[in-house]
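W.,

You were right to be curious about this one. When I first looked at the sequence I had no strong expectations either way, so I just let the prediction run and decided to look at it fresh. Below is the sequence, 319 residues in total, followed by the output.
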Amino acid sequence: MTGELRAGGEGIRKLARLSERLARSPDLDSLIGTTLAGLAELFGYEHSLLLLLDERGERLYTIGSHGYPSEGVGSEVRIGEGVIGMVAERAEPMRIGNLGRMLAYARTVRRSYEQQGGEAPGREVPLPGLVDAESQVAVPAMVLGQLVGVVLIESAKPGTYAPDDEALLTVVATMVASAIEIDWAHERAAGDVIPGDSAARRGAPAPRPETTRVRFFAVDGSTFLDGDYLIKGVAGRVLWVLLGHYERDGRIEFTNKEVRLDPSLELPEFRDNLESRLILLKRRLDERDAPIRIEKTGRGRFRLVVERALQLECVDVEG
């Protein structure tokens, strides 16, 4: 009969609805939120993560999450580490129904790594996750044979997910990877360098009298606001460059293109991921309710909003 669903038809309709929502997302930031919210609303996956591959292909960084007390943007996973890292390394999905022993082993390895001089916990954002997670599905987000990132869902119940969940998440991850690539291409092509005229300078109300101390470590881009860790790497370096323009020239308006051309960032010529790093930075600042914000003003354009006076300090460890 016309209108009746075939076997599996409801799932296909839900995928179609998610695809329509992704197609209407105007930028990468909304695309990320739409994806994770859609996984929860349409498919009942209440706890999910989306991680993207970094510029060197060595780590994945969390760009968005759903269902956790803290969004955890900026948290990282090394390629080959844990379920997420193994999925990225092998570029193959992984479905696990009993995570207890694997998680205990992973925590032991992590503690050993830190004791041997690995990255200090104070310079890391914790990866979001269920403390009592028992079931996980992680799939690679790929386009044209290249890894873009990893999508993960998890549950506190053992044996929650079936092969159908793995197949569905694989389709979603492929759609997301393609949408991200398209957005990156559009952003790279948009926005000329803004000339140094008054339109690019401070137009917002004068900052409040309180001062925010920004401490930047040149060796790895680690950035602290009033003593609290914010972010590191490319995103930290981008923030330092923007704040430098703000302090020296009063600049508040920028384009992705001019930031990309800044030699101090040492971005790779291909797949520099600048747009996702800007989103990562924006979300970390918002999550911290920081007196510094980034507001998108158009395709390939954004504004720096500073609500307090700044005290900038660059720490050159080698010096």
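Here's what jumped out at me. Residues 108-121, 195-199 have pLDDT under 50 and may be disordered. And, maybe more interesting for your project: The helical segments are 9-24, 28-43, 82-90, 100-115, 163-189, 233-249, 256-260, 274-287.

Coffee later to discuss?

I.
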